[in-house]
Design brief:
Number of helices: 11
Strand order of the largest sheet: 14-13-12-15-16
CATH architecture of the largest domain: 2-Layer Sandwich
Number of domains: 3
Largest sheet: 5 strands, antiparallel
Helix content: 25-40%
CATH class of the largest domain: Alpha Beta
Order of helices and strands: EHEEEEEEHHHEHHEEHEEEHEHEEHH
Number of strands: 16
Distance between the termini: 22 Å
Radius of gyration: 20 Å
Shape: globular
Length: 366
């Protein structure tokens, strides 16, 4: 009989995507193969405390009326103080301390800053735990839209034109945003450089809308992208990294079809707001699908990604393909596009989780 591996499922966090991380964790806790893995659910509160959570997926359902979150229950999870020890410990709310065992791998299901951006990955590197997903550099690159675009452009991959504006620049010279709108044309999308799940994103069609959009974005980050709107079909490809010496693999394509909203915003992604249809597999010719899959893997490799990523595209009427983003820890709820693309490619949600854990363990052995 195969010995079970001990997995820390790590979720929550300090970013504005805290609730999405919790909902993703709920999906993983439900589907992970309990015949292969024992699970330690560790939540990170909005204040950054590591707490031992209940292994109860029902706590983390994505209810629009009550978004899930990690509440400080008084416990504190203690990471090893050196790579010589693999023991994870917890101090319970009553002050009693006990061992949680020696985890084999960590599945950090966090979105946004302080989780997806390389900071948490750096901590896991320091304590010597293998983990699912990209390392420090690729996580930081994927989180920062400005540097993702810079690297992809250098790799010969087409991206949407953009202008990056810092909070200091905008405060000193707000006209810089108007200049970007003039240069890029209308409409543009104003985005925090280091946020995800469409948090803080606005569509701007005229100069009078810019200031409000900049304020919304700057509330999330001190650096903002003003990005040219690219007309075309919104297509997404899910990528799985290979084991050492193996290439990455790309899924079938999914498509976001706008049927009443200006863009694929937070409410449409996670709160079932109307006006968006998700189609998977997308209706594409074999040649176009093959080209998208090839570019997705090139983008994955260009930033040095590992484990998983979702690459988002615009496919224009003339066939031109533009990469919008590379998301190194995409939404992973059972209805999210990343798992849906793999399910439509023949890999079940449960087996997808197992594959990610197996690949991580093979690439980052203890």
């Amino acid at each position: 009989m195969t010995q079970k591996r001990l997995v820390v499922v790590l979720f929550g966090g300090r970013s504005s995507e805290h609730s999405i991380s919790c909902a993703t964790a709920g999906g993983v806790l439900t589907a992970i193969d309990r015949s292969l893995f024992d699970v330690i659910p560790v939540g990170i509160t909005r204040d950054g405390a590591f707490v031992l959570e209940h292994d109860d997926p029902s706590k983390f359902g994505l209810d629009p009326e009550h978004l899930p979150e990690v509440i400080d229950n008084g416990s504190r999870v203690r990471w090893p103080d050196s790579i010589r020890s693999r023991e994870l410990r917890v101090t319970d709310a009553d002050g009693a301390e006990r061992s949680l065992g020696s985890p084999d791998i960590v599945f950090p299901i966090l979105h946004g800053p302080f989780g997806e951006d390389g900071t948490l990955q750096g901590m896991l590197e320091l304590v010597g735990y293998p983990y699912v997903g990209s390392g420090v550099l690729a996580s930081a690159l994927g989180m920062d839209k400005h540097f993702t675009k810079t690297v992809l452009e250098h790799a010969g991959i087409t991206v949407a034109p953009w202008r990056t504006v810092t909070a200091a620049e905008y405060q000193a010279e707000p006209e810089v945003a108007i200049g970007a709108l003039d240069a890029l044309g209308s409409p543009v999308f104003v985005k925090p450089a280091r946020a995800g799940s469409s948090v803080g994103v606005s569509r701007v069609s005229q100069p009078s809308e810019l200031d409000a959009a900049m304020r919304v974005a700057l509330a999330e980050d001190s650096k903002v992208l003003i990005e040219a709107g690219v007309p075309g079909r919104e297509i997404e490809i899910a990528v799985l990294g290979g084991r050492i010496g193996e290439p990455a693999r790309a899924s079938v394509a999914g498509e976001i079809v706008l049927s009443g909203r200006e863009f694929y915003d937070f409410d449409a992604k996670y709160l079932d707001a109307p006006g968006i249809d998700l189609v998977c597999p997308a209706d594409l010719t074999d040649d176009v699908l093959a080209e998208l899959q090839s570019i997705a893997i090139r983008a994955f490799d260009a930033i040095g990604a590992e484990g998983l990523a979702r690459v988002d595209f615009f496919v224009q009427a003339d066939g031109r393909i533009v990469v919008n983003e590379v998301n190194t820890m995409p939404g992973f709820t059972p209805i999210s596009m990343f798992p849906t693309c793999w399910i439509r490619s023949g890999l079940s949600y449960e087996n997808l989780i197992t594959e990610l854990l197996d690949v991580a363990a093979a690439r980052r052995p203890v």
